[in-house]
Design brief:
Layout: H1 2-79, E1 118-120, E2 133-135, H2 136-151, E3 159-161, H3 166-171, E4 193-196, H4 211-220, E5 224-225, E6 233-235, H5 246-258
Antiparallel strand pairs: 1-2, 3-4, 4-6, 5-6
Helix pairs in contact: 2-4
Bound molecules: zinc ion.
Zinc ion binds near residues 161, 188, 195 and 233.
């Protein structure tokens, strides 16, 4: 019996050993698999890092190329013969001493014309005591008329009135059939009207041959002609220059006169006629 028990015990021990061996083998296999997995991850990481580096280097090189071509462009601009910004060239567009016009003021496209003010204008027939002046925006339109009349060879056009002070509007005596506006309402008080000699058929100075051309040229530049109602009279409407109304415009022009305008040596007495 003892021998049999011993043999059975030995069998059990052998079985245990066998199981242990199998477990060990499994563990080894597992360990090997884990090791392979780690190797795989490391190789993967190295590949990704490499790829990233290649990408980075590619971007770096292309950026460098861009910078280089930009440098070349700048270099080309500096050394070429483009003289647009050369302060020593012969572009005389802005030379302040140009004397190609006989205009009493120089229109400046950049100045703010939204408020307006009186300027002296060379108007044949209007003497200094009648302040030969117009609102600056109206003066521009008169100069455009003058240029066109000159180009057409029309003899000098003369005038009797341009700007009027309120006092002058009160004092003026209507001549012939030409009406007189109520003081405080006349377009002349805004510096937006001209009375032209030669447009009135009932006047001895009527310009039978060219009055119609004169009227057309004024109208070409935005002037209103009242024809029979007031033949010599031409004016620019308030809306034409962005003024709210004739009355507001009159207040501005009269205020400019009271402040000492127009500047430029043509200012006449307040109540002269
Ligand atoms: Zn008039």
């Amino acid at each position: 019996m003892n021998t049999t028990k011993t043999i059975k015990r030995q069998h059990k021990q052998l079985n245990k050993l066998d199981k242990l061996n199998k477990l060990n083998k499994l563990n080894k296999l597992n360990n090997q698999k884990g090791f392979l997995a780690v190797i795989g991850i490391v190789i993967g990481a190295v590949l990704i890092a490499f790829a990233a580096m290649v990408l980075f280097l590619t971007l770096l090189v292309s950026d460098g190329t861009k910078k280089k071509s930009l440098d070349q462009d700048v270099g080309a601009k500096v050394t070429n013969n483009d003289t647009n910004n050369d302060p020593t060239n012969n572009d005389t567009n802005n030379i302040p001493t140009d004397n190609t016009t006989n205009q009493p003021y120089k229109p400046d496209e950049e100045q703010d014309l939204s408020t307006g003010y009186l300027v002296c204008v060379s108007l044949p027939g209007v003497s200094a005591n009648r302040t030969p002046a117009l609102d600056v925006r109206v003066a521009r339109r008169y100069l455009a008329v003058k240029q066109e009349l000159d180009a057409l060879g029309i003899p000098t056009v003369r005038f009797t009135w341009a700007f009027r002070t309120n006092c002058q509007q009160i004092n003026i005596v209507p001549s012939g059939r030409n009406p007189k506006a109520k003081p405080g309402t006349s377009p002349h008080e805004a510096g937006r009207a001209l009375d032209v000699v030669g447009l009135d058929p009932s006047s001895g100075a009527f310009r039978k041959n060219d009055y119609f051309t004169i009227v057309k040229v004024f109208q070409n530049h935005g002037w209103q002609w009242l024809a029979k109602k007031d033949p010599p009279h031409m004016h620019i409407d308030a809306g034409e220059v962005g003024e709210v109304s004739n009355l507001v415009w009159i207040q501005k022009a009269q205020a400019d006169y009271k402040r000492g305008g127009p500047k430029g040596g043509c200012r006449g007495p307040e109540c002269g006629s």
